[in-house]
Amino acid sequence: MKPQNIYIGFTTIILFLFSCRQGSEKELPVMNSIQLENSILSLTKEATNLNVPWDLQYDRINDAILFSEIGGAIRRLDIKSKQVLLIDSIPDVYQQRTLGLLGMALYQPENEQAYLYLSYTSKKDSSIFSNLYRYNYNPTGRLSNPVQLLQIPGNTGHNGSRIVISPDKKVYWATGDAATDTYAQDSTSLNGKILRLNLDGSIPKDNPIANSYVYAWGFRNMQGLTYSTEGILYTSEHGDAIEDEINLILPLKNYGWPLVEGTVDTDEEKAKVKSLAIEEPIKSWTPVIAPAGIAYYGSDAIPEWKNSLLLTTLKNQSLRVLTLSDDGRDIIGEQILFQNILGRLRSVVTLPNGDIYFCSSNRDWNPQKGFPTQEDDVIYRLRISDKAYAPILHAQIPQTQPEAKDGQALYEAYCTSCHKSDGEGLTNTFPPLANSKTVNGEEKALLQIVLHGMQGKTIESIKYEGVMPGFSFLTDAEIITITNYIRINFGNHASEIKSTSLKSLR
Ligand code: HEC
């Protein structure tokens, strides 16, 4: 071969290698198009067969989606090739029900060491903990140099949590109240709080309370945290049987739990908080929807969604678009996508180019009817598109409250997430209402349970792990309608309850 040919051959090889690395994006089939007012979006499945992806982050150096799975794996989805790579497995994660590897935040500055912050539950002897760790994040290869920044009490539920890093290089950690009523209002406890740390885990000098991580308090179990490009911090949070919330976080504010649920609107709540200044949510939902991850959308790519919060929901199985006011202080509109189509949705992230990635959570502890599918769990992508593919979906606006006389609608709104549409419950977690002695039994005892809830009882020699919240916030007519609905459905044949006054039971 002449030297010239060798040279050409060599260049071809280099060009070939180069095009493999930088190559154009692999296109996947579009599942649906979403028609907004003017724009069309396409929905694609970017990764399948995952196991409860919990948090999604954008890795700008690798152009990839970095994600945690609840069992302890950290994986990376390459945006162009769609390949999923296992980066590392966190050794001491304790996974059970809602516990495990949860929120994370990727800090990736120019020309400095990148860090990955992780929040996860661990167990030592019989004690459960929530941990905040920092790892060195290497663009290639595994995580290294783990540093435990904080360890706080955990529990079998309510461990939060999410992490976010602000442009001024502060780490915000949203912690759960560890199902302990005294923590959230105690400013010396780190549970039920927004905590603020320096990148190395030390306490920032300008924190609102000197020598304390505590930035804001009065939280139950936050599941979403995002920092807007306008510099506003938002959370999403699970209420008990009522009042799921979106909060706008300000230093030193008290968000009320467990004294107040949602806004301070009942006489009991007003009496409890008296002179305390309680910061109320900017949005709340009853019946609850189980809000999870949130991400601020500030891109021009989808003009209809610019300046909104994207919210994934578990119980409601939807992606919601919450339109913000110009100053970001109010939610002025709400639209619902994919309800009951993709199952439970856990986390969402927006990319600098305006693409949106979000994931399902159908292999978690509380799968809904028809899920998981063979391909679950899935990471989906929403992207602006110039053509429409059938079937075309439209965003919906939220429905009004179910009517007091519609037993099925009330049951779906308040009971299905635990006892399921068919009344069969979930093995060892939620008891069946089908053929239940209590449901078919004495009226007062049954109404008492629906009004005030129960926990820790043994039913037909099974001890259930879940907690039954009380529904005393419903009207008498609603309580009677739901109770009658469960007495004559799922194969139950009990007599109808006629009396409409529950005063003596309230
Ligand atoms: C967050 C989950 C959850 C929701 C929502 C929920 N329940 Fe329950 N329910 C439970 C759990 C857990 C138990 C068992 C508690 C125990 O073992 O002490 C239970 C027990 C019951 C029982 C007693 C069953 C028996 O056989 O003894 C009845 C009746 C009941 N629920 C009705 C309802 C109705 C009606 C609704 C809706 C208005 C509802 N529940 C909503 C979790 C839930």
Automatic annotation (TrEMBL):
One Pfam family matching this protein: GSDH
Name the UniProt record assigns to this protein: Quinoprotein glucose dehydrogenase
Organism (species): Sphingobacterium gobiense
PANTHER family in the record: HEDGEHOG-INTERACTING PROTEIN (PTHR19328), HIPL1 PROTEIN (PTHR19328:SF13)
Single Gene Ontology MF annotation: metal ion binding
Keyword field: Heme, Iron, Metal-binding
Residue ranges of domain Cytochrome c in the record: 402-490
